[in-house]
Amino acid sequence: MNQFIKWTPLLLEVDNLNIALFALFVIACFFILCLYAFYVFWLVPSRPAISPYTKQPLRFGEDVKLSSAETIMRFLHYEVGGYDNKVFAMKKSMVCRDTGRIFQDCVNAMGRAQVDWTFLQKRCPGTWVSWGSLTDEQKQDILDSQGQVDGFQTEKSCPHPSPRAVTEEYIYIKPGPLYVDLKTKVLLGWKCVPGTIFEVLVVQRPGDKQLIKDSLAIVKKKPTTILLKDS
Question: What keywords appear on the UniProt entry (predicted)?
């Protein structure tokens, strides 16, 4: 018993030393991970985001002039309208230099942008096919469901169903391609913003046009201030 009491302080000292060493080890690992994260996300230059259409580098939406950004947001709010077409943050968007098409919500908190063909699904989930791949009967069925398709590209459209299969002949046409979900008859297509070189991707569901028209008529009677989203 006396011998156990004799060795107890030494055991406590060893335990405290081990705890201290383990704590230092954890702190060192955390510090190394922080340095690695800083190196990867801030010091290592990232590859520029590429337009799915032109395969050329995109530019950051925050570089768009404030006056143009205001015009874009007013167009969305007053002319397009609808729950699916709310104003968005330009600083989280990327812009195609050649076509003016704006890919929204593709810049993360670290300032890194990623744009690929999944942008259609992210904008509005669906099974999208090119307007040009539809038969005349299918097109008429969509028109009957939608009522109006003003501003969408219905004149020149790629005959290949897959959006990825768009050929160069149709890449630069303004406005950009129109896509359709044949099951839900929802439209997803580019529209030109009047007075600018830019295009926005607009969602239009069957029956939306009349509802939006009625709501916009009320909004225009009561002018409001459009605040640009900065986050």
Answer: Membrane, Transmembrane, Transmembrane helix
Beta bridge partners of 44: none
Radius of gyration of the chain (CA): 27
Backbone CA torsion sign across 214, 216, 219, 223: negative
3-class secondary structure, 130:
strand
Convert the pLDDT of each residue in 211-225 to its tens digit: 555 554 555 555 555
- For the cut 90, the answer to whether the pLDDT of residue 192 exceeds it is yes
- Structural domain boundaries in the chain: 1-44, 58-221
- Which H or E run includes 121? helix 119-123
Mean local confidence (pLDDT), 35-55: 69
User: Cα separation of 81 and 21, whole Å?
Assistant: 61
Q: Which residue has the tokens 């063909």?
A: 117
**pLDDT per residue as tens digits for the range 63-99:** 999 999 999 999 999 999 999 999 999 999 999 999 9
Residues near 35 by beta carbon (within 8 Å), at least 6 away in sequence: none
